[in-house]
Amino acid sequence: MFRYAYLLLLSFVCGQVYGNMAKPYEDGSYHSVLFSSKSVEVLKEHIGIKLMTQGENIARYAITYELRSPEDQSLPLLFIAVNLFGNPVVRINNEPLKVSRLKDNSAAELKAYSFIKPYQDGYVFVYYQQNESKLISINDLAYFTCNLKKGINTITVDYDGRLESNNFGFIRNYKLEYALFPSKYWKSFGPVNIEVSVPEKLRIKASSIGQAQAQHANLYSWTLDKLPSGDLQLEFSPKISALSAILLWISPFGLAVMAMILLCWQHFRLIRKYRTSGTGYKRILPLGIFLVGLLVYAFYFLSYDFIDWTLGDKALGRHGYVFLFVFTLPVFLLFYGLVMWGFDQHFKRKFMEKATG
């Protein structure tokens, strides 16, 4: 009987498995502040980000730099541009500039950037501290040359980047990352104003720069007078109901543990009750062991569907390899069976002592 029930549970669980089991997340874009030289000051930078999560999960960037140059000069600029949608659109004082990608044979261009060291197979190290660097494909470095006039200049950079997102779990979360460390290569770097426009259905889940200093509807803003040492990282998740939030916090495993405690307590009471009537074989012991195990595991797997149901159209509905948990059932039954058998023997001895006393 146990064998057939176990196979039935295994068949039920395998029905919960989804076809796409390949990659747990989609890579996002990685990009940065402009790299430059110590001869130019950045008076201020404005980073405008608009999330567009319909279809391609895009973050649209509109970045503005206000520079002060001590003289008329031609300045090579470069920034990290990993996994962007096409080349950025760059303007200097409203005049468009041509943006190129560095190639493997561009040794001449690399000489203009002391913080870039060739590695191998088309990769370079981009240093942001003396002993700290990032390994970047040379094809993911975008560069351009701008002619600065003496005094104030404005550079705008517009592009679309991909948001990192997960393929499995209860809900789809999004993450963006923007490297701020290149700011150390300028003569000085003024305050950075960040504005993030978030769709109505999303909320900011986590931020590497703390809570927004101002919020108007779905527009969040920060002003950084001192740049953090790490990257700018923002995480977003769907707005969900209080019930869904509580269930996600408890988790299917937590719900299964709660069910197990209730079922184990009821089984314990029945064992104690039936042991007061004699010392013979009691079917409540093996039957309870089997039913508690079956119900706890069924509750665990069904809780995934229940939580998905509370999430409605926000549910991602992909839970990866959770079905493998079913293979721990024999271990659970063995451990639980030994514990309950111990209680049964304890009550049996008490009954015998009472009967002979």
What would you note in describing this structure?
The chain is an alpha+beta fold and 357 residues long. The protein has two domains: 2-21 and 242-356, no CATH class; 33-238, Immunoglobulin-like. The chain is 30% helix and 36% strand. The chain is built from five helices and 23 strands. Strands 1, 2, 5, 8, 12, 14, 16, 19 and 22 form a nine-stranded mixed sheet that branches. Strand 3 (41-52) and strand 4 form a beta hairpin. The longest helix is centred in the C-terminal third of the chain and has 34 residues, at 242-275. It is elongated and about 105 Å long. Keywords: Membrane, Transmembrane, Transmembrane helix. The chain crosses the membrane at residues 242-263, 284-302, 322-343.
Average of per-residue pLDDT values: 79
Based on the structure given, which CATH architecture of the largest domain is correct? Answer: Sandwich
Name the poorly predicted regions: 1-25
The count of DSSP E runs of length 2 or more, i.e. the number of strands, is 23
Oligomer: single chain
CATH class descriptor name of the largest domain: Mainly Beta
* Structural class assignment: alpha+beta
Give the C-alpha Rg.
Answer: 31 Å
| Major sheet size, sense and barrel closure | 9 strands, mixed
Number of helices: 5
Helical amount: 25-40%
The third-level CATH topology of the largest domain is Immunoglobulin-like
Strand content: 35-45%
The helix/strand series, from N terminus to C terminus, equals HEEEEEEEEHEEEEEEEEEEEEEEHHEH
Terminal-residue CA separation: 40 Å
Task: Give the count of structural domains.
Answer: 2
**So what's the overall shape?**
elongated
Keywords: Membrane, Transmembrane, Transmembrane helix
